[in-house]
Amino acid sequence: MKLIAASILLLAAPVFAQGTGPTPELANRQLPDPAQEATATKLMHGLRCIQCQGQSIADSDAPMAATMRAEVRQQISAGQAPEAIRQWMIERYGEWVSFEPEMKGAGLILWAMPLLVLLIAFWLARGLFRRRT
Amino acid sequence: MNRSMLLWIPLAVVAFIGGWFIYGLAVPKDDMLHSAMVGKVLPVFTLPPATAGIEGLSNLNMADGKPRLLNIFASWCIPCKAEAPQLEALKEAGVEIDAIAIRDKPEDVAAFLQEFGNPFRRIGSDSEMAVQLKLGSSGVPETYVIGGDGTILYQHIGDIRAEHVPMLLDKLRSAQ
What we know:
Chain A is mainly alpha-helical. Helix content of chain A is 58%, strand content 0%. Chain A is built from five helices and no strands. Chain A is flat. In chain B, the strands form two sheets. Chain B has a five-stranded mixed beta sheet. Chain B is elongated and about 80 Å long. By secondary structure, chain B is an alpha/beta fold. At the A-B interface, helix 3 and helix 4 of A face helix 5 of B.
């Protein structure tokens, strides 16, 4: 019984569920150029980790996030524009990978909604003020 | 519009949101992150062998005119063990299967193949998950149907169950 319990415990250990492999060099090492590093960090905060899903790759410690950070730093140091790298990620994982929805399709509703609500509010307020005078 | 009509607007909004909630609860949620690479050509990569005695894998190895499967697995992944009999069945049906081992050690891969059999022609070692990222793959196991020209035709997420085998064979046949 104890043996069974122990083996179930072993199965439950999440640490084993990631395997072992080297962490890519650029995952946790800053770029020598501070300006490039700043650009890379900004982009990393705007990309979603594939593995842990709710976190940005800058905040996540998952192996996949490390790989994604290394990819971002490597492309930035190669002179790639941040938006191009975001597109590169979107080409592989779809819109979902970006924390900044694009201004088209369903994303457009998201962007236009505050403006729409404001316009409706103005329209309602206008009616109220008119009645007062 | 008169005032009494306006009063209905909040109710309509609440009813709409409520309806949306019911829809969200009724429709099963798809939590899987599908690769956006389906329909595109395999990315360029070259991976070293994952274990002794079996060759590594490059994208060019999979563009030899014959449709095949590309299995993303790892020796530490439990569903990968569960799908081993299905991969074996696919191999016996004449399917060529290449594989990429994720964050794995040569001795672990060897032990895994020893225990569960080796249905693979080639196994590349992706220790840093760099190729997995290029493929738009988000976990293990995943299985891709690759066309003879190296185009990604289909992505199966999760372990292959017995009921998925005919479906995969069908996709390979229509890729011919």
